[in-house]
Amino acid sequence: MTLTPLGGGREIGANSYLLSLDGKNILIDAGRHPVKEGYESLPEIDKINDLDVIMISHSHYDHLSSLPYISQRWPNAPILMAQENKGLALRILQNSVEVMKKKNAKDGVEPILYNHGEVNELKRRIYPMEYFQRYSIDDVVDVALYPAGHVMGAASIFLEHRGRRILYSGDISLSQQLTIPPAQLPKKVETLISEGTYGAKENQLLTRYSEIERLSKSVKRVLENGGRILMPVFALGRGQEAIYMLLMLMEKKKIPSVPIYTNGMVASLSSLYMSNYESISEKDRKWFIKSFQNNVTVAPKSIERLLFSREPALFVFSAGMLVEDTLSYIFAKQMLPNSKDAIFFMGYQSPESDGYKILQANKNGDERIQMGDDSIEIGTKNIDIFNFSGHADYQELLDLPRRLQPEKLIYVHGDEAALENLAEELQYEFEIQIPSNLQTVEL
Ligand SMILES: [Zn+2]
């Protein structure tokens, strides 16, 4: 029984892990690298000889977005994912096709890795699974999904093979978020494959509620001073969480009531969330639907008027790390020079991203920053990051193996320093490995 990272080993990259169990090859997750482009963004799929099953933990870009490409090569491998994830996955992949086409039309270089027809093909290949239900794969291995918190439809993947229980945490959150309940875990496992996004010590986090307090004060200050606020979000998860929170703060009169603008993808995932998600109460759901309809506007296709308007407003736009040419990127470039405006990040920023660069430049007191071909003046001091992450914080990452008591602990999905830090902290309690990409380890 072995595991080989094809992406996501000692990094947050194109997360994809090949498990080999008595000749059965199971691929867990099929992501693309959040910053790299084209073929470079794919996992190392040339190393796959054969695939029997593909399992997907959740619908974030770095876990899902190479699925149609991989599934084309192994069309007979069924794809397993949580029932609640299926609609989201298809919607997000259709959007990825549009993004690739747009880029290709612009630069003529970006490959279109898959088309709408190939995404539609997946409808037949995806087998939606109920949480907690066990499924047998050819009587060789049993699999089950556990709710992972994190975002709607997210799952930790449990496998049992010859009496050995293995859990892949996926992106996991052990605490309650505004719109998502915490993860649920199996009792015990022999092998834990854990994410380690927030494994660095400084991510000993403030509670979500103290972050809401801090954000609400900052938002109030900027809006009352006549500024506009950009909140870059990941369309799935942070998008819903941010809008839900802003609506709640407006209703409680903690922040001024101003228009909230979002983009089509955040809005469309929010409506899937509001119509399909069973983990929030009927009362909260109704409140969310109504407040959303009353206060949230989808940004129009021609954005000039909105971009240059000086009216106080909140912009909840993807992409969360300011990927080039996205709405959040375009607005960030326009807003950075204005001393009244603000950019409040909502979650993890990869060190290669423009989001990270802006935060660093603000810290260093730099006056300008290079974004794409343009040098942009930094005229505002209102740049901050708030932790509304859907990931386990440092303490939770330590709790996770302590609760599951595995004989073997394997870390993936984190910056190298963060994973090393976790391993050092737990070195006397567990046997720990941190495989690099293409390094095979025993499970
Ligand atoms: Zn995720």
TrEMBL record:
Keywords: Exonuclease, Hydrolase, Nuclease
Chaperone as UniProt keyword: no
Gene3D superfamilies noted in UniProt: 3.40.50.10890, Ribonuclease Z/Hydroxyacylglutathione hydrolase-like
InterPro entries for the chain: Beta_Casp (IPR022712), MBL (IPR050698), Metallo-B-lactamas (IPR001279), RibonucZ/Hydroxyglut_hydro (IPR036866), RMMBL (IPR011108)
Keyword field contains Cell membrane: no
Residues of the Beta-Casp domain: 239-358
Domain of life of the organism encoding this protein: Bacteria
Pfam family membership, one: Lactamase_B
PANTHER family according to UniProt: CLEAVAGE AND POLYADENYLATION SPECIFICITY FACTOR FAMILY MEMBER, INTEGRATOR COMPLEX SUBUNIT 11
UniProt protein name: Putative exonuclease of the beta-lactamase fold involved in RNA processing
